[in-house]
Amino acid sequence: MSFSKNTTEMQYQTDDMYDFKQGIKASIPVLLGIIPFALILGAQASQKGLSLLEIPLLTGLNFAGGSEFAILQAWTNPPQLMILVFITFLVNSRHLVMGASLVSYLKHLPNKKVYPALFFMCDESWAMSLADAQKRKHLEPKDAFNLSFYSGICFSIYIMWVVFTALGGAIGPLFGDLARLGFDMAFPAVFLVLLRSMWCNVHDAIPWGASLIAAIGAYLYFPSGWHIPIGAVVGMITAVLMTGDDDE
Questions:
Q1: Which of 24, 66, 82, 198 is the most exposed place for a label (fewest CB within 10 A)?
Q2: Residue-by-residue pLDDT tens, the chain, 248 positions
Q3: What is the pTM of this model?
Q4: CA torsion 162→165→166→171, rounded to 10°?
Q5: CB 234 within 8 A of CB 214
Q6: Domain limits of the chain?
């Protein structure tokens, strides 16, 4: 009986490691697109006076690229901490929605697994894992969502982001403004690929379009950082309204 139990546990561990490696493998195309953006962020942080120790602390403790770019735009010397905290909360508010969408997949897990999963969640790992879960939508949510696959994606993106932002801080002064080389186009390209992987049909993409239009308007007419939460909220409201129409 004990031998059978040990064999089963070893099989689970083997499967988890395989899924973890598959997550790392699946993240490689995304990493190639994010690396240039990480270098730009590191270079900009260096130009704002952050040291090679402070840059990985910034990107490792606040693992959210959008808010990191936003606070660097508002960075002063000395920094206005309350303003930076507010901007960080504002830009990262989309994570409230993203985390809520994972409740049905994670609610059966203990907090010691849920909290790290949510801390390391980013746009790419969230989108790729949900797209993977959709392939098994005939199963119960707890069985459809592959936590090991998700962890592999989070692990590779987190390590890459922290390392290459630090590298950007080191080489930034040597190359000047990396954005002039076109590196800043890599991040939008990554999100276009993620959207393509989640595409179902035109009708389901209507909230995307509403979110895009709202975000563009906010980017043009509102202060820096507002376009992200405004786009997210408009997309959510549109999706909720469409769900109500479908139910009728």
A1: 82
A2: 544 444 444 444 568 899 999 999 999 988 887 888 888 889 888 888 889 999 999 999 988 877 888 788 778 777 778 878 877 887 787 788 888 889 889 998 999 999 999 999 998 899 899 888 888 888 888 888 999 999 999 999 999 999 999 999 998 777 666 666 665 665 566 567 667 666 777 887 888 889 889 989 988 988 766 777 788 788 878 888 887 555 55
A3: 0.72
A4: 160
A5: yes
A6: 2-84+92-199, 202-248
Phi-psi region of 49 (alpha: psi -120 to 50; beta: other; left: phi over 0): left
- 3-class DSSP state of 102: coil
- Return the half-sphere exposure (C-beta side, CA atoms, 13 A cut-off) of residue 77: 5
Size (the chain), residues:
248
Neighbours of 154 (CB within 10 A): 25
Amino acid type, 223: P
Closest CA to 21 of 155, 198, 197: 155
Contact 39, 178 (CB under 8 A): yes
Other C-beta atoms closer than 10 Å to the C-beta of 71 total 23
